[in-house]
Amino acid sequence: MAEKGEVFTVKASLPGISPDDLNVTLEDNVLTIQGETKEDETIEENSYHIRERRYGSFSRSVRFPVPVEGDKVEAEYENGVLTLTIPKAEAVKPKRIAVKAS
User: Fold this and answer.
1) Per-residue confidence (pLDDT) for residue 93, from 0 to 100
2) The domain containing residue 25 runs over which residues?
3) How large is the C-alpha radius of gyration of the chain?
4) Which end of the chain is more exposed for a tag (fewer CB within 10 A), N or C?
5) What is the pTM (predicted TM-score) of this model?
């Protein structure tokens, strides 16, 4: 998670996972990314030397340090990378105060 100006950016590497298999929620300032990697077919006739394909469900949650706008989140998924752009809530953005000369 990175913060720049008025937004947070969250990037998650999720290779081999379809966007349809992802569940992304934002509740009470906590972002949760959940999904599942399906087990690929095991060929019993083969004798594996190395097998490092992982499968199963996963979940990762992060809490934002300031309130964010849940209804304005943008999500993109490209080449196995999920990118979320989450704007800060108006209440925490700096406000310019006009000073009047007397």
Assistant:
1) 63
2) 2-92
3) 20
4) C
5) 0.77
